[in-house]
Amino acid sequence: MSGEVQILGACPLDCPDTCSWVVTVEDGQAVKMRGNPDHPYTRGALCVKVNRYLEHTKAADRILHPLRRVGPKGSGTFERISWDEALEEISVRLRAIVDEHGGEAIWPYNGTGNLGYLQGSEGIAGRRFWNVLGASRHYLNICSEAGNSGLKAINGTPGGMDPENFALSKLILLWGTNTLTSGHHLWKFIQDARAAGAHVVAIDPIRTRTAEQADEHLPIRPGTDAALALGLLHVVLEEGAEDRDYLENHTENWEAFREEILRYPPARVAGITGLPETDIRALGLRLARTRPTGIRATMGIQRHSGGGATLRALAALPAVTGDWRHPGGGIAYSTSGHVHLNIDTRDDLLPAPVRTLAMTRLAGDLDESVKCLWVAMANPVGSSPDQNRIREKLLREDLFTVVMEQFPTDTADYADIVLPATMQIENTDLHAGYGHMYLMWNEPAVEPPGECLSTTETFRRLARHMGLTEPSLFDSDLELAEQLLSSGHPSLDGITVDRLRKEGWVRLNVPQPFAPFADGGFPTPSGRLRFPRGSAYTPSHTASAPGGPYPLALVTPAPHTFLNTTFGNNPELRRRAKGPRVLVNPADAADRGLTDGQRARVFNAGGAFEAEVEISERVRPGVVASAKGNWPKLSPGGATVNAVVEQRDADMGRGAVYHDNFVEIAPV
Ligand SMILES: Nc1nc2c(c(=O)[nH]1)N[C@H]1C(S)=C(S)[C@@H](COP(=O)(O)OP(=O)(O)OC[C@H]3O[C@@H](n4cnc5c(=O)[nH]c(N)nc54)[C@H](O)[C@@H]3O)O[C@H]1N2
Ligand SMILES: Nc1nc2c(c(=O)[nH]1)N[C@H]1C(S)=C(S)[C@@H](COP(=O)(O)OP(=O)(O)OC[C@H]3O[C@@H](n4cnc5c(=O)[nH]c(N)nc54)[C@H](O)[C@@H]3O)O[C@H]1N2
Ligand code: SF4
Ligand SMILES: [Mo]
């Protein structure tokens, strides 16, 4: 067909797979998007969500112009204004805030709606601009920081196995991870392993679609996984299957940790985890006898008070068994620890040292000291802990709230100014998967609709409008990409912007197959893996305390049809999600007189939301589950599951505790 071109891009969403896609453009219009079959990891298929991405870019509710609030905060009533008017109002307000209260009164609140190194939360976007103004720093700890910190404590890095190497594993532990929903491209590698005889075990309080496909499912009590890890190691020691040579040459503190393991015999672990002792023993034996064993743990398992200690304990397994020696052995949490880009946010531009505000703590920390909240790539009213308190805080009249958005989210409803943002087919970006080993390029396929601007362009225009002169604020996207690749780290050898643009992706320059710790070499001061000192198991909140008036432990996992709250307004995906639902075990339902399909109120001291009851053996007694991702304003009662998620810090990294809250349920 004449005038038809194919443009290579990458999915920007917060998903480990970072798919390669191909957009067909005809006469300046994107007419088709498909997964790129040539990409070595994502191999073609996208997912149920992003199959609707093109439709989503053209959705009727897409924000296409700058908006100014005309109604009360929260009402979502706006008038259209020009970019000039928007930039002028913002400039005046920001100048006044900086003059009167100092730059720290600005909270640049970036979320994970886009993980791009140019446009998204991983990268430069806006941060140089905020440094010039002396704004508070934002700590992006909403998702993975407890686990990252636990892994750094033991291994010196969150980076571990190359997920492609699961194809070589003989025993695979899918530990608190819902692969088929939250990063399904790994499944092909698991299937390859299975074809070669691997045994696959899912460890999850919910019988998810992943657990259903596994060879074995252990429905563990939430937040007790570190105890299970210690119990499995107890069996490994009973069998004499520890790798003494690896322990001696590549680890620290083994003797004390060995004592800690001996405090967790399977009978005790059965009491803690709610799993039969025979199952723990059987898995321990398998672990003792199977090399290589690969552990896949993603972020779900660490959304608990003890989340950091959990990842640290899981990461002890491949050190004791010596699995790190083999490709196909070890633990894979996030590959981002292997990505060494030069993210030059120019902190030298800061006029003075500034405070850091944590993303998880918006409900508590959005106090009088914050005069401007600048939200980008985030929908905190839908996704952050303690929804009701966030709403209250956003109502403050003297708070100047700017939201850069693609869609009229619940958060945008509270904005004074809304700025229209591009979607991925309309902007340039550089990405790195956190579930694979490739850098990815996203070439814009079409012009932005309406007056949408990319993140980088928005900040360039704002800097110009404010009369700022720092040259690096005006670097072009391609210049920024060059800078990102200029760290000099060997993993980037041979990777250039030209090459990325031509090829679409390039594998990090690491050995293939990749076995990062086969000969030790952990990025710790001693080069050795550091076994935990003291107690290795920190029980979660719901595992340690009786619930009192709220006895049910609530887990709030990833929905199949949304990506966090992204797509939460897509009509077809909403239809498939069938509204907010809560999974209740038959015994707990009977105790409360709940019937299948009925509307119920799920509540605790912090708030309440409504959901349709689904009575199911897929959850353990005492545990209920309701997915994240629904939009409050599109949900019955105007609230979602995050109304009952408390703002509490995990043990490490100040991670959020989304899967670690008590609730009660009553019929509506
Ligand atoms: N379709 C879809 N895909 C997504 C997302 C999405 O919203 N939708 N979100 C993306 C994002 S932001 C992230 S961070 C990743 C997260 O990906 P996952 O880690 O898969 O996320 P979750 O669904 O939160 O948790 C996974 C599983 O952990 C289980 N779990 C909870 N607590 C415990 C526990 O204490 N022990 C054990 N063993 N299991 C537990 C839950 O029941 C759940 O089935 O997925 C990404 N992919
Ligand atoms: N109950 C519960 N809540 C959770 C979790 C849980 O397990 N349970 N998981 C948490 C996790 S893992 C995460 S990562 C967070 C995510 O929470 P958030 O960071 O708030 O992510 P989203 O909810 O996806 O909202 C992202 C918004 O960014 C917008 N966006 C996308 N791309 C761009 C862009 O290029 N520019 C601009 N300006 N905007 C863009 C989208 O339209 C969307 O409205 O949610 C957390 N919330
Ligand atoms: S959300 Fe994940 S699986 Fe879906 S297209 Fe994006 S990267 Fe691929
Ligand atoms: Mo996340």
Automatic annotation (TrEMBL):
Question: Sorted alphabetically, which InterPro entries does this protein's record hold?
Answer: Asp_de-COase-like_dom_sf, MoPterin_dinucl-bd_dom, Mopterin_OxRdtase, Mopterin_OxRdtase_4Fe-4S_dom, Prok_Mopterin_Oxidored, YoaE_C
Q: Per the record's keyword annotation, is NADP included, yes or no?
A: no
What keywords appear on the UniProt entry?
A: Iron, Iron-sulfur, Metal-binding
Query: Where would one find coiled-coil regions in this protein?
Result: none
Q: Which residues form the 4Fe-4S Mo/W bis-MGD-type domain?
A: 4-61
Family under the similarity heading: Belongs to the prokaryotic molybdopterin-containing oxidoreductase family.
Q: What is this protein called?
A: Molybdopterin oxidoreductase
Species this chain originates from: Planobispora longispora
Its lineage opens with: Bacteria, Bacillati, Actinomycetota, Actinomycetes, Streptosporangiales
